[in-house]
Amino acid sequence: MEAEIARIHEESSAEGYWDDPEHAQERMQHLASLEADVTEWRELANRAEQLAELAALTEEEEDESFLAEIRDEASGLERRLADVRLRLMMSGPHDRRDAIVTIYAGAGGTESQDWAEMLMRMYLRWAERQGLQAEVIDRAEGDEAGVKNATIEISGRNAFGLLRSERGVHRLVRISPFDNAHRRHTSFALVEVIPDVAGEIEVDIKADDLRIDVFRASGHGGQNVQKNSTAIRITHLPTGVVVSCQNERSQLQNRERAMAVLQARLYDLEVQKQEEETARLRGEHITAGWGNQIRSYVLHPYRMVKDLRTEWESGNPTAVLDGDINSLIEAYLHHMVGRN
Predict the structure, then answer these.
(1) Measuring CA to CA, which of 14, 34, 150, 257 is 20 to 30 A from 265?
(2) Cβ 105 vs Cβ 142: under 8 Å
(3) Domain 207-282 - what CATH class?
(4) DSSP H or E run through 137
């Protein structure tokens, strides 16, 4: 990283470097990210060295409170090291980018729509815990409760690299709060996670291939919250991909954000096609969409969360649904590194 930092500094001092401002700005952003990484690793190394020296000096120390303080410092250092080591496993071309997360309720009406909203809350809470920016840019309210679908933009360091572990079908088993007979129900929701490539990767979208609908933004429960029609729905006719945005105040802003999401989805669609073709040539079997169940959340008759890809499991689904999913993400990244 330090060698690359030196190369970028050398590049930036060359004549004509700023003639292409977009490229120069992109390189400067990469430089800032590299410098932040190096600073973090250097700080960790310094803290570890200082702590080791302190521990060596206090081997005969009998002050339990002082020893406990050293142990706490070491535990904190270990946790921080685990976080930065996790980033080392993110080698994908888009792992450092922001993420666009869309949650779709499965068949089952209110039950699945409530489950989709529970997952939306889980990702919002996770983003808050991670210090990432999260914004719901679109949501279609459920018939009685929950959401039929919702799209969240999550911005910050390695957002996509962390959240790509969540792509697939999530299954919930519980006693339904909507069933007067208190029967056990199984619900499904599909989570789509794509990198936000707007402004970085060109996707050819022809105006004739788009159908653009304008409607009023709606609030919780489906009620209209604006008198003017500012919400935008864009349908890409050749692929059938539909995106919408109703979070911004102006129609123009909603249209720009919807186009950015459409660009990202079309790019991801092309990447998936290429991956499926490569897998076919290798004789591998890939299931996508609703056929790809990745995780089960069981609230009755026992309590457990189990990831079906990594075999990671926990008996505390409450914590997981409250956004404590870092262990799941880490297990997935280790799993993928092992496969590769």
Answers:
(1) 34
(2) yes
(3) alpha beta
(4) strand 133-141
Which pLDDT tens digit goes with each residue over 280-323? 666 655 444 566 789 999 999 999 999 999 999 999 999 999 99
Cα–Cα nearest to 195, from 289, 262, 95: 95
Provide the 10 A C-beta neighbour count for residue 69: 12
Q: CA 148 to CA 114: how far, in whole Å?
A: 9
What pLDDT is attached to residue 180?
84
C-alpha pair distances (Å), 292 with each of 105, 186, 214, 298: 15, 16, 34, 18
* Residues in the chain where the model's pLDDT stays below 50: 221-226, 286-288
- Cβ-based neighbours of 322, under 8 Å, separated by 6 or more: 122, 125
- Which pLDDT score, from 0 to 100, does residue 23 have? 85
> Which of 1.10.8.420, 1.10.1240.10, 3.40.630.30, 1.20.58.410 would CATH assign to domain 2-88?
1.20.58.410
pTM: 0.77
